[in-house]
Amino acid sequence: MSAKLFRNKGNVSIADLKSTAGLRSESCCYGRNKNDASNIQIRKIRRYKERSETMGQIALIHGNIIPMDGRKRYSAVLAQDGKITAIGGDAEIKELAEQNKIEVIDLKGATVLPGFHDCHAHLSLTGFDAQGINMYDAGDIAEVVSRLKEADETWPEGRWLYGMRLDEGLLDEKRPPTMEELAELKRPALISDRGGHYVIVNQMAYDALGMSPEVEGVRMGPDGKPNGRLQDRANKVARNGFPRSREEVLEAMVYTGQEALKKGITTIHAQEGFTEDDPAVPLLIEHMEDFPVDLVIYWCMMPDYDEPMAEKLGILGGDILLDGSIGSRTAAFFQPYVDGDGGCGYLNFSEQEVYDFVEAGIVRDLAMSFHVIGERGIHTALDAYEKVMDQHPEKIDTAKLRLEHFGWPSQEDIDRAARLGVRISTQPAFTYLRGGPESVYRSRLGEEREKAGYPLRLMLDAGLCLGGGSDSDITPLDALLGIHAAVNPPYPENAVTPYEAVRMYTSEGARCGWEDDRKGKLIPGMQADMVILDQDPMQVNPQTIKDIQVLATIRKGSVVYKKEES
Ligand SMILES: [Zn+2]
Ligand SMILES: [Zn+2]
After folding, report:
1. Position 380 in a domain
2. Distance between Cα 404 and ligand 1 center (Å)
3. How remote is the CA of residue 371 from the centroid of ligand 1, in Å?
4. Half-sphere exposure of 149 (CA within 13 A, CB side)
5. From the CA of 405, how far away is ligand 1's center (Å)?
6. Which ligand is nearest to the CA of 406?
7. In whole angstroms, what is the distance from residue 440 CA to residue 443 CA?
8. CATH of the domain at 163
């Protein structure tokens, strides 16, 4: 069904409505003329705020409305003052709408779901990547270098070259370029790997960043000199040192919020602030009210426990790397990587540090989370959660425990997480896009372990709360792709049903952020966040879920995105 079908003689249709955020013509400026784009974005934020106060009511009829509250379906829904006020049959809703002088929109059979939640995304990184030079499909090092050279000739003076999504496993050489291979560039250059675990810099960037062999993570070549690869602390220093103004950071995050609306996402669990002087979290707090989507903000570092910012967020932790990634062989396992030097990955914090951090959060009634991928990383986090709960039994009913990713849990730890009520923010597209027999997961972990990754079926069967997310920009900010991935993983034993997958991005997504008292379902009293789709994900051929089109996105009862008619 095309958006054109919304046109309905004599009646108002979505095609006639203006979206409040005014996104389409302006957001395309992003990344081309940075100063202009930045002004536009900031102006737009202000305007959105003014307008949002006057909006928030809508009546939808002749739809396939799925509230995600059991298996019920309705044909019509009414929202007033930003909240769902009635759901039911066409005649009933039409009458209510007319009484309240609310325009009635004819959906012509389109499907409506609660607005999607992306339970783990990096707003600033996603925005920066939209500006960067894509290296993901570069075939070899020569191609990486030639893309950088082309940008070197054309980018405005003074701007550092930023390459991104480099996946060394996909290059012919199976390694990233060295500093020497980037010697011809005339300005500082930095290339980010796809997982965010290291960067490659040229000599000019290395010098400008103040790097030296003493900085932890500066890797050496066979000649004993730095080879341009910066991991661990050096990786953080480099990412943080990449010159960007506060305006550029805000602009990047707003861009990501607007892109999310195009995919029907109305709430993002933002993972930001990896270093002390990263302005992202303070900027988001400042702009929370007028941001394009709702935010649950995770501050991804171990701060002073009495830091007022953590109190303000209600959360301690988030994508704090308790372990690392499979690609860089840093996710922590009890068994070694099969293609490495016998290492099992490692933890970035001691058990005591993890315990102290968790206890500090629990006694302050803050939600807790860590990044955990490998079996040992997961085990260590759960040990700390379990021990803290043993020490503080008075918190057992109220503690907000969560973990990010949860890639390779043992069955005992799946059961233990369920027992402790730990909510899991996971990313189905990881294995869908990056798993399978030909993958880096397979070569690093061997067949048996690779197949056991992200066992969503076992997790749901154990009763775990699973929230779906993208980890954007690692996989695309696209909830329907995530739903598709959960239904169609590389190995069918890990698959969930379309209904279960939709729950991960709606009602369970809201639970994963402790927002299920006001979001995630279309029932009276809930925030009127809705996505209108051209197909029903529970009825289409499951292998085509990813092709479903978002026709419009409604946030707090206002149309904030409408698909261009073709
Ligand atoms: Zn992570
Ligand atoms: Zn992440």
Report:
1. yes
2. 6
3. 5
4. 10
5. 7
6. 1
7. 5
8. 3.10.310.70
